[in-house]
């Protein structure tokens, strides 16, 4: 809910974003977060609102290829950016290898954190800074899972990382 | 979130002019702290000046072998830049000890310097807080103060500065380049952040209308003998209870030059340059390190719940100095203290 009672007449601002490969133009109020734009206006509800304060990672998406918390980004500040959400990684008929690995390893229980975990994990593999399991755990520390599926999440990522070393994982659909 | 007006600055001078002309304006870079504070109704800017299009995204070589890091370079980019990793590994390590990959990707160099305290009362507009609402009182004094300052606090504020990166920058004697209505100036890192005194609302020494444009690293790299050792309540993704950026030059088993900056213990990264010089020429061994720790903590004062930080800090300083002296810095993904 809006805290402001002194509502200045708020100008909207033109913003151009490429979302999951599709170029879109918007006129947005400057206080709209990327997360609220995705969920509220575009119905891309795969990206979840957990804490809305950058503490849980459920809202993780890729912005110009880098994982970020979409709750802490004002959409107007991203003019020209390419956004990839969980919907842009794979489809039920054509899952991203990380989505497949999460299924195979039972890397979730309630599933609420899963889209953020998967986006974060895909970025982790691409970044290439994690090699050992303890490094995977450290590099995934921005994604909390209240069900405690961490062990299986790390298993899923390890499997995709090993496969990626043999043959690099395809890029996110763009 | 409260409503605000929004402008995108195309040049630094445009951003400075907009900032200088409007005391209610705030600059938006990565947004990881400001947007959060706006959601909590702690930050209430009347207007936002978005500087994300400004050309402050490069790390440039300096003629003296140093580096100039633009204010908009992300924390991730700094941490993994091969030149930073090779010449200033202490900085790289400290950045990787903080936040999460998602936040480091969004957070900028300038923004890291300007982040606000994580004091719970500062974040809670229903409680008095001199930093948020000058003159309203300090709820942390006599309240819940486990994470609060043991050095340099005042009767008005016992908040700590939350950054890891800034602790390393303090130890490395970085220089902050700022630009304002009066032009450009350099601020030595030790003078950039301030102690709370009777003006805790002011975190730093920037004048009205001034913005950070770069951070410069010059002089000694301390690539051989350094460490960033951070202790916190969980093993990752938490603010420091106590952290130490330690660096030294050692020759024939003796300290030639010493740098120690402390995080999580004061309103700014804590350094005592006079104390550092006093230990030059002394053996680089545990007994000296204990004296250094005791000297740095001589004025420490607990607030009750954070009393434990004083003996903890002594141990962390000694341990960090041992790591630095031995040339075996803490690896941030390894959770056992080495």
Please explain how this structure is put together:
The complex is a heterodimer of chains A (174) and B (338). Chain A has 174 residues and is of the alpha+beta class. Chain A has two domains: 13-88, Ubiquitin-like (UB roll) (Roll); 90-166, DNA polymerase, domain 1 (Orthogonal Bundle). Chain A contains six helices and five strands; from the N terminus they run ββαβββααααα. Chain A has helices spanning 34-41, 86-89, 97-104, 114-127, 133-139, 150-166, and strands spanning 13-19, 22-28, 60-63, 66-69, 82-84. Chain A has a five-stranded mixed sheet. Chain A is globular, with a radius of gyration of 17 Å. The model of chain A is unreliable at 1-9 (pLDDT under 50). Chain B has a domain at 226-326: CO dehydrogenase flavoprotein, C-terminal domain (Enolase-like, domain 1), CATH 3.30.390.50. In chain B, helix 5 runs antiparallel to helix 8 (165-171) and helix 11 crosses helix 12. In chain B, 52% of the residues are buried. The A-B interface holds A 2-4, 6-8, 10-11, 13, 29-31, 33, 52-54, 57, 60, 63, 66-69, 72-74, 76-77, 79, 120, 123-124, 127, 129-130, 132, 134-135, 137-139, 141-143 and B 1-6, 8, 28, 31-32, 35-36, 38-41, 48, 50, 52, 74, 76, 80, 99-103, 105-106, 236-237, 332-335.
Describe what is shown at a glance.
The complex is a heterodimer of chains A (174) and B (338). Chain A is an alpha+beta fold. Helices cover 33% and strands 14% of the residues of chain A.
